[in-house]
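User: Predict ATP-binding protein's structure from this.
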Amino acid sequence: MADAGPPNQVRRLVLHGTRGVVSRCRDFTAQALADWGWIPADGEEARERVEDVLLLVSEVVTNACLHAGGPEELVLRNGEGRLRVEVSDASPEHPRARTPRSPALPGGHGLLVLDRLAGAWGSRDKGPGAVGKVVWLEVGRPPARRTGAPE
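Assistant:
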């Protein structure tokens, strides 16, 4: 059974008016993952999962920059065997698939990346009296390192 880690760990990064927001969010996420025991990730599958998380963070933050006037906050929630990433912005427009593009052309593939790499994803309104939305995604925790396994 995989170790779920301590429940309900939360980190928040406020992003109003910041520069280099995508790299800042990736660095913030990498530090949280390291603190929560996702890094160093032992084994190929675990390392790939961490890289997937960083790519997913890049995608949702970039989409907020390109389509929603920029992200306002990044929230990471670790617990119950998964990581939940939430990016809020001031746009009421929810993500929607565009006309399919050739995979050979750059750009326009962010939602496809979410579909393929995230265990689940979606968006919701911020709540009563607030303008904007939260785009969220969830990724399962990498498998726990096995000790004493035969070689």
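The longest helix spans residues 44-67.
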